[in-house]
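Bug report (template v2)

What were you trying to do?
Predict the complex of my protein with 5-O-phosphono-L-ribulose.

What happened?
Run completed; filing so the output is reviewed.

Input:
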Amino acid sequence: MSAAPQAPGLASYPDEVREEVARVREVVARLHAELPRWELVVWTAGNVSQRLTTADLFVIKPSGVTYDELTPESMVVCTLDGELVDGTRSPSSDTAAHAYVYRHMPHVGGVVHTHSTYATAWAARGEPVPCVLTMMADEFGGDVPVGPFALIGDDSIGQGIVETLSESRSPAVLMRNHGPFTIGADAKAAVKAAVMVEEVARTVHISRQLGEPTRIPQDRVDSLYDRYQNVYGR
Ligand SMILES: O=C(CO)[C@@H](O)[C@@H](O)COP(=O)(O)O
């Protein structure tokens, strides 16, 4: 399906914006290939976006295109209201959710949504993943929270993501009966959070088959989180 721009087109933006769009299209296209590589998606069921630093725009994938068909040129550019600025196809059906997050969380530069199996299984049960692994303390600073049930297409999913993540250190939320949405400083960080949330959801699920896993005390969670966020990899 072809899409008509709803907002002033890319030609009306300065050179530096158009240059950044070209770079971010490459980044976002490349990162979409990480979703099947880490087995986080089937068919077309997940999306990655990244906000521009030079304009209130973001780049996201077109809707319903398989990952092996995605190219930098096929990536779609939208305003932070989710209006199409540039692209030959309709933007992802989760565009409104990504746009809402960018409007309300200025520190967020990347958003990812998948239906990865274990994280989505926890979302279907509406149960947060308890912080029982050092990797969880490092990455999520506590439990992975559950967001409300919300219908796709309008601001409801975005509102649920923002409300839930504003009260948590976690970069991942399990939207009830739907699946994980993750955030990061850029799209790569949000993809990493999507990989990590699936990994811990799987491990904690397996642990539960063996008995009840033990929670890490809060002071240890805080200490691990501080080290990982401020020292690890520096
Ligand atoms: O959640 C859903 C559908 O249930 C969507 O995120 C998923 O299928 C991906 O759709 P898009 O191809 O990004 O429009």
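What did the reviewer find?
The mean pLDDT is 96. The first strand starts at residue 47 and ends at 51.
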